[in-house]
Amino acid sequence: MLTGSSGRVGRAIFSALSAHHEVVGIDRVPFSSTHIVGDFADEELLLSALRGADAVFHAAALHAPHVGVVPDDEFQRVNVNGTRLVAEAAAAVGVTRLIFTSTTALYGEAVIPGSCSWIDENTLPLPKTIYHRTKLEAERVLESIASPEFAVRVLRMSRSFPETGDVMAAYRLHRGIDIRDVADAHFAALTNGGPHFQRCIVSAATSFIRQDCELLAKDAARLLRLRVPALAVEFERRGWSLPNSMDRVYDSAQAGLLLGWRSRFGFEEVLAQLDRRSLEVLPPGASVSRKAE
Asked: Which of 1, 138, 127, 121 is nearest to 62 (CA)?
């Protein structure tokens, strides 16, 4: 069963799974990947969707664009109470695994202005908004429910929504990921072994190391020319400026160790998508809503 199956992440997960497994999608919005149209937090609909399921992918949530538009109580109902309902119902009917789509956005205030933070699973989240707080609370709910009979995998995905090509290409080095890589990580989490509760950052592979943070904060362009010369050449060819600073690096090494997963799509794919006018990448200069963050 897949919640949020009509959303961008849900559709990508459906695509990754459906060639190998029967997937039943549930979402409030109709789409070709959705079989049950309704609120996943409706217990009757949820139990119908869970019938016969071996695993649950829980991607449905209220997100950053809903902050200030949707009441905080609705964030609590959907992101926290709804997640608890999904987990408890799944465990009750004999489902043995739940994969939860979380976000690196919940690190929030852990990124200190003017510096560069190396962020891994040991970094303490410091959420800023009701979105971040409820996703973190949902993770804690799942950790409390996980058991040897009910495995839980929490995947904190980094930025994957469409942005301008120059921004996305740079982000792909330290805080972004292709939506297909996100889906592949979810697929890998379906069968991996190890502890019954696991939490992983899922972000594109980085060329940087922890010791690079000081220079990344002060003169990222110099380090980029050294570590990723192909990117620097492309930026110059396209008339783009390299970023002067980078404020964080998401380390997804643990996802590689626990899930056996590795990202496939780096900055080169961003540029290729831009050149073929993929809807995944916007042209530089396009006005982008910051609400997506």
From this structure: 138
pLDDT over threshold 80, residue 292: no
Cβ partners under 8 Å of residue 169, min gap 6 = 231, 234, 235, 267, 270, 271
Model pLDDT for residues 131-184, shown as the tens digit of each residue: 999 999 999 999 999 999 999 999 999 999 999 999 999 999 999 999 999 999
Contact 186, 13 (CB under 8 A): yes
Nearest-angstrom CA–CA distance, 244 and 197: 39
Does residue 217 belong to any structural domain of this protein? no
Cα torsion 221, 279, 6, 130: sign: positive
Query: What's 148's domain CATH number?
Result: 3.40.50.720
- Rg (C-alpha) for the chain, rounded Å, is 19
Query: Structurally, how many domains does the chain consist of?
Result: 1
The mean pLDDT value of the chain amounts to 95
* pTM of this prediction exceeds 0.85: yes
> Token pair of 274, please?
């831009």
DSSP letter, residue 184: H
CB 169 within 8 A of CB 178: no
78 pLDDT tier (thresholds 50, 70, 90): very high
Handedness of CA 168, 173, 174, 180 (dihedral sign): positive
Tokens linked to 77 = 């109902």
Q: What is the pLDDT of residue 102?
A: 98
What residue numbers bound the domain in which 188 lies?
2-163+177-205+249-264
In a domain, 293, yes or no: no
Q: How far apart are CA 128 and CA 115, in angstroms?
A: 18
Would you say residue 39 lies in a domain? yes
Predicted pLDDT at 30: 96
Task: Answer yes or no: is 278 within a domain.
Answer: no
State the DSSP code for 289. -
Map residue 92 onto helix, strand or coil: helix
Structure tokens at 209: 């190391």
> For residue 211, what is the DSSP state?
G
